[in-house]
Amino acid sequence: MTIEGPPIARQAPTERTFHGDTVIDEFAWLMTKEDPATIAHLEAENAWTDQATAHLAGLRETVFQEIKGRTQETDLSVPSRKGGFWYYTRTEEGKQYGIQCRVPALPSDTDPPMGADKPGEEVLLDGNELADGKEFFALGTFDVSPDGKWLAFSTDFDGDERFTLRVKNLVTGEVLADEVPDVFYGSAWSSDGTTLFYITVDEAWRPYRVWRHTVGVSDDALVYEEPDERFWVGVDLTRSEKFIVIDTQSKITSEVRVIPADTPTAEPALIAERCQGVEYSIEHHGHRFLILHNRGAEDFAVSWTSVDNPGEWVELIPHQPGTRLESVDAFSRHLVISLRRDGLTGLRVMADGSTASYDMEFPEPLYSVGLAGNPEYETSTVRISYTSLVTPDSVYDVDLITRVMTLRKQKPVLGGYDPANYEQFREWATAGDGTRVPISIVARKGTRRDGSAPALLYGYGSYEHSIDPYFSIARLSLLDRGVVFAIAHVRGGGEMGRQWYEQGKLLTKRNTFTDFVAAAEALVRSRWTTAQRLVARGGSAGGLLMGAIANLAPEAFAGILAEVPFVDPLTSILDPSLPLTVTEWEEWGNPLESAEVYAYMKSYSPYENVTKQAYPRILAVTSLNDTRVLYHEPAKWVARLRSVAPDGEYLLKTEMGAGHAGPSGRYDAWKEEAFNIAWVLDVLGAA
């Protein structure tokens, strides 16, 4: 049946008054998920989107087959050694989910077993079996006890990130009757594997309680509860397996407690009391706890304190403005510090007992590097991950003494991929206040810089989360059709250090949006593309960016792809009963208490600022069970766009059985990405 036009949401005006300001929300009724009218509206939107994109069905299938054809479907990760086993994940052609496995390690093993044949393989968990008959499946915790006898794992079949925790006996293969619903990510085992620590959430989806569970016993004990609604709790076991760490954090303040892993019933010991604005984390290293902190150190420093009597912080690595220290990882004889400087990630190595250090060196001008899969404490070899806009994900083992890097595996890209056919560039935009904003660009070699190329500009810009240069198989379907791909490293992210983040949050949030517009204008000015051939893309908080630039500079873009977009932030942040709201006040401000914050947020909120103007083509993609950015934000946004500026082309696509990350199976995810790419190519005239 042909649909005559897009669905027009009914208007049921609802008043909201704060700080003397009354707002009329015509589409607030869409916030009621249980209302059949809401589901009917979302389904009508999906039907309209299906019809409006029906002409792209062939292209979608072509792009899906390109992604599938370039991916080695039967594959495995590089095994990581832990105790007497090598652990790895493998995939099988035609199956949606990974299979978690291990094989026994020989005392003489120095290199991971890389062949497909793995004698003695044990399948610890098969995601395909767990997901059988389910529309959605996600694994939260996957945690093997130090003695290798027990596996704690948690599953989500709805996409709402509320997991059910179970325990499996890896000797007998039996899944125990032990079962805990509504747990969060994270867990930690005691040294002897008899006790498991886990986390539960409150009604606002905030992880706030740490529990102690004795295997085979149902009477769990509450270990720690965080009453301050700004704070989340986490739990982990140190790499040394000596301490359980209870990490309590708000957006800007931290507090850490530890429990000896061999005495799991001991009271948690406090490392340092919380001090507003001071962030710190710890890592156990022999007789000391290493402390990464920002106490008098904007870009962070590393100190240490005694394990036996935590107190004074002794400086180990001083603060260096412009070099943001992001983490410190301890091994028995070395420390590895993850950092970023000049918009690039890096790794620094320091031997135990020395203050001398060296930085690992990499050949490309743009890249991303970090530690990956290093469960062993007693080692002088670490595993790192490396990628760039043209280099597929690569795994290296690095000898910290000789500095020799051994490539263990590079992600296969089938179909004759040659990185020499592509080029990557770093360019800079100048924001209105004179700030230089980095842009990472990749294009097929020979792409003409005469304004004729179509382009896609990606952005995020919140929570100090950096979008570093990365490789994507799916992106090749754009590059090989002549599309230029660029990342705008806007303020609010962490690419240029802590001040880069500080200048894009709270009452400076608008810098995130104006930086992105400046990046778009720079791409046009440098003749990469034109506004008529430029699409913007961003998701979650990057979806807020998409909604803001749609209002701020609609003429700068031909299209906007907003994924799970946070486009009604003022409504959400005003409601402390919603998931995550209270914990978000230190990122966005508290509009309940501050009239200034209220007015500032209202000035940039995409939903509040829809006006009768010519908007670019917009595709909003969301999920019904998303607990991070609720489905109704993009649903309301699209409804208001249609109501206020009816001449535009706006599409809403809702996954009715998924969460924040979209479809869970890899083939489903590829189909989703093929849908997005086909829409982008259509807008760019490159279909």
TrEMBL record:
Q: Which InterPro entries match?
A: AB_hydrolase_fold, Pept_S9_AS, Pept_S9A_N, Peptidase_S9_cat, Peptidase_S9A, Serine_Peptidase_S9A
Alphabetized, the UniProt keywords read:
Hydrolase, Protease, Serine protease
Q: Where is the signal peptide?
A: none
Peptidase S9 prolyl oligopeptidase catalytic domain segment(s): 470-685
Start and end residues of each Peptidase S9A N-terminal domain: 6-410
SUPFAM superfamilies on file = alpha/beta-Hydrolases, Peptidase/esterase 'gauge' domain
Q: Does the keyword rRNA-binding apply?
A: no
Which family is annotated?
Belongs to the peptidase S9A family.
Report what the protein is called.
Answer: S9 family peptidase
What is the species of this protein? Actinoplanes sandaracinus
